[in-house]
Specification:
- The complex is a heterodimer.
- Chain A is built from 5 helices and no strands.
- Chain A is mainly α.
- Chain A has 2 domains: 69 residues; 67 residues, no CATH class.
- Helices cover 71% and strands 2% of the residues of chain B.
- The C terminus of chain B is likely disordered.
- A two-stranded antiparallel sheet of chain B has the order 1-2.
- Chain B has one domain.
- Chain B starts with a helix and ends with a strand.
- Classes of the chains: A mainly alpha, B mainly alpha.
- Chains A and B meet through helix 1, helix 2, helix 3, helix 4 and helix 5 of A and helix 8, strand 2, helix 9, helix 18 and helix 19 of B.
Chain lengths: 148, 516
């Protein structure tokens, strides 16, 4: 975790500097005279995060190195799951924007099942049918409202 | 009290009771499923309540919170994998009991302790919130600002393993809360010319992304260990192993009452969370026992102590929310927009402005406790079967519901983008131990904090010496500094000790759980 802390500290410092130099001046105007600047609180928070990030790095540099310093806090399986489920979401979103909610929902459910190792055809058919049918019944019949 | 009796008239009808029962059932099932806790359930269900009557809507959400707190014991006992981190001490004795074939006994005692803790803590809320709120009305912007800073510091310091990371997470929460149109000058802040951001970032997609989707991805990465545990469940054949006997009650009554007291106190203090309550209660019961060495081998009072405290925290955590308008937990933070949406603004004024609705909420909470007992008792064997469902069949359904919940918040695909962006943030926050609890609470109290800060600057005329005219604010500023110093010292001394906090759960190899 020590190395992960150091890396996240550096990333946070870079983020804060970008916010202070580029983002806040560009995307938050100065307020009218006599009023408090709308930049005040965002800038205060960024300065606070910057200071705490420096402290995070300093405190981790002072910590005695241990054997598990280099161990990634995210396991290989978690990275894989992150990639697979992320991919399913990207595909479902593309379908949503092109063809609408129904194909996107089917791809989201079936894609997630496939990504997690499910291969039984019956489950592939029944899961989307049950979930989408259940959502339709709940919103359109029980609650009497439309989702979209 | 009269209002409360009248409120039962509003709640004791088929429509409201049905939604409470649905909430308790959904919550119980969510609690049983590892990784899906009350916060996830409430976040996903908030958009569903748009179409319900106010009392039913709030009752549904409270039912989910209460049901989930009780349900999390099931997977802790059967799988040694708590549904929520706060049930981790339940697993210490519950799982050995299950391995001895006494799963039914442990599950029943867990349920009874949960219901008693929850019910008594609800009474504490009813008795304490309104009197405290009277004092809260004396508080001005300067005092409120100091209290909010203190609360966030307290929560940031306690809800993770790192004080610095907790504070960074809280600061990020406030930073993200500034996105949108500034209320005084109407100048857009960090909207990047996106009209959807003019009203600020929506809480529900953020909470769903950080709490539910990110957790599902982590669960997906660890599902083999979880599925392996389901094959080890055994059930006893002797009738006495399936029932809670008089001797069990004798052993567990004092731990339940102690746990309720500890849970209620922990719940009232912002930021400590249910995990602290259940661990403190378990530890206190073990210390009070004449045979403490037997704890961890299957003592029924261990289950009772942990579960009573775990469930007592939920209603008690509404005390600061109702009395001061300050959310002390994620669940309280998530309930704020739901309450506001249905006409109840949490804070001291709600007792004067909406006494009927407040009483109805109290009545709904009491009814939820009773229904929790009924539903939990009759459906416990069925709910226990949920633990046998492979996690790969649960995750797609949860992801689908998350998308519906996020989409319904704004009726736009932009909410899904927000949900996914905060999924990524939540995933890394959990893995790197940046407390998303503090982030979400910072995000929720951010607007109040900014407003009270601006008002304070005007009241103080930008002269800090004028703070001397506000002794309450000075006390809270001093407390903030004190908490920071004490926590920093405490962390330095006990860096090797791993504390369990409400910052999320991760299943590690071997079926054990740790907070992340």
């Amino acid at each position: 975790m020590r190395i992960a802390n150091l890396v996240s500290g550096v990333i946070l410092i870079l983020f804060c500097l970008t916010m202070l130099v580029l983002i806040i001046p560009t995307w938050i105007e100065e307020g009218p005279d006599g009023m408090m600047s709308p930049r005040l609180v965002p800038q205060m928070m960024i300065w606070l995060i910057l200071g705490l990030s420096v402290l995070l790095i300093a405190s981790n540099l002072r910590t005695v190195p241990s054997d598990d310093d280099g161990t990634s806090p995210v396991s290989r399986e978690e990275w894989l799951a992150f990639g697979k489920i992320g991919g399913v979401f990207v595909l479902a979103l593309a379908l949503f924007l092109s063809f609408g909610a129904l194909p996107a929902s089917i791809v989201l459910i079936v894609g997630a099942l496939l990504a997690l190792g499910e291969r039984r055809p019956l489950v592939m058919v029944l899961m989307p049918l049950g979930l989408i049918g259940g959502a339709w019944f709940l919103f359109y019949r029980v609650l009497g409202t439309a989702i979209m | 009290m009269t209002d409360l009796f009248h409120a039962f008239g509003d709640v004791l009808n088929l429509y409201t009771l049905l939604w409470i029962a649905i909430g308790v059932t959904i919550g119980y099932v969510l609690g049983v499923l590892p990784g899906l806790g009350k916060a996830t359930g409430v976040a996903v269900a908030i958009p569903l309540t748009f179409y319900l009557q106010p009392v039913a809507a709030i009752a549904l959400l409270i039912g989910i919170a209460k049901g989930s707190a009780a349900g999390s014991a099931v997977s802790a006992i059967l799988l040694n994998t708590p549904g929520e981190p706060s049930s981790a001490p339940t697993a210490l004795d519950g799982y050995p009991l299950a391995r001895q074939g006494k799963a039914q006994k442990a599950l029943k005692m867990g349920l009874y302790a949960s219901v008693i803790g929850d019910f008594l803590s609800t009474l504490v809320l009813i008795c304490l919130a309104a009197p405290l709120a009277r004092y809260a009305l004396l508080i001005g912007p300067v005092e409120l600002c100091a209290i909010l800073v203190f609360s966030l510091t307290f929560i940031g310091g306690l809800s993770g393993r790192s004080l610095l990371k907790g504070l960074i997470a809280g600061a990020f929460g406030i930073l993200f809360a500034t996105v949108g149109m500034e209320t005084e000058t109407f100048i857009p802040r960090l909207t990047f010319d996106l009209l959807e951001l003019d009203d600020g970032l929506p809480l529900v997609p953020i909470a769903i992304g950080m709490l539910a989707v990110a957790e599902m991805i982590i669960q997906a990465g660890n599902m083999r260990e979880l599925d392996a545990e389901t094959t080890r469940i055994v059930d006893g054949t002797k009738p006495e192993d399936r029932r809670v006997l008089l001797s069990d009650w004798k052993a567990s009554t004092a731990p339940i009452l102690r746990g309720t007291l500890i849970g209620s106190i922990v719940g009232i203090l912002p930021g400590l969370g249910a995990s602290v309550g259940s661990f403190l209660s378990y530890g206190a019961t073990r210390r009070a026992s004449p045979r403490p060495e037997e704890f961890g081998t299957g003592r029924i009072e261990g289950v009772a102590a942990a579960e009573s405290a775990d469930n007592a925290v939920v209603p008690a955590s509404f005390v600061p929310l109702f009395a001061l308008g300050i959310p002390g937990s994620v669940i309280a933070a998530l309930l704020i927009p739901a309450f506001i949406l249905h006409g109840l603004t949490p804070g001291p004024r709600m007792f004067q402005e909406q006494p009927d609705l407040v009483a109805a909420v109290y009545a709904a909470m009491i009814c939820a406790s009773v229904l929790l007992l009924l539903i939990g008792y009759t459906g416990q064997r069925l709910f226990a079967q949920v633990t046998r469902v492979p996690i790969r069949l649960i995750i797609p359904g949860v992801l689908f519901l998350c998308c519906i919940g996020s989409y319904m918040e704004t009726g736009s695909v932009f909410s899904i983008y927000i949900m996914l962006a905060f999924t990524v943030l939540g995933f890394f926050a959990k893995k790197l131990d940046f407390s998303f609890v503090t982030f979400l609470i910072g995000f929720v109290i951010g607007p109040s904090l900014e407003l009270s800060f601006r008002q304070s600057l005007q009241i103080l005329d930008h002269r800090w010496i004028k703070l001397l005219e506000h002794p309450i604010a000075l006390v809270f500023i001093a407390l903030t500094v004190l908490v920071l110093v004490m926590l920093a010292r405490g962390r330095t001394k006990s860096r090797t000790v791993t504390a369990v906090r409400d910052t999320g759960t991760t299943i590690t190899k071997g079926g054990h759980r740790e907070t992340s």
